[in-house]
Amino acid sequence: MTDFEDAALEVIARLKPGDVVTYGEVAAEAGFPGAARAVGSLLRKTGADIPWWRVVGAGGYLRSPDPARQARLLAEDGIVVIDKRVH
DNA sequence: CCCCTGACTAGAA
DNA sequence: TTTCTAGCCAGGG
Length: 87
Known about the structure:
The protein is mainly alpha-helical. The protein has one domain (3-86): Winged helix-like DNA-binding domain superfamily/Winged helix DNA-binding domain (Arc Repressor Mutant, subunit A), CATH 1.10.10.10. It is built from four helices and four strands. It has helices spanning 3-13, 23-29, 36-45, 67-76; strands spanning 21-22, 55-56, 81-82, 85-86. It has a two-stranded parallel ribbon. It has a two-stranded antiparallel sheet with strand order 3-4. 21% of the residues are buried. The structure holds a DNA duplex.
């Protein structure tokens, strides 16, 4: 487990219902500013156990391979998603 | 070690 | 507005 993965996973695990952060914010918060891509790679291989749906792309755009599913999960958190974007 | 890809971004053209 | 480029980190060939 790399330092990056360890820190990034913890940042995401701390997210509460209603919270939405971008890949870049997670990376910066984890101490690796600019490593937004690595966050995506991490979520891709990481199974459940973390609120991955609360991580979106810059501008609130849903970048997950299944935007519809992510939008539904966000809705359960009380977050409104319009045209695949969080406002 | 080199090269390419990707749930990314910000800035330049 | 759309397209490119450069930067970043992890992974795979």
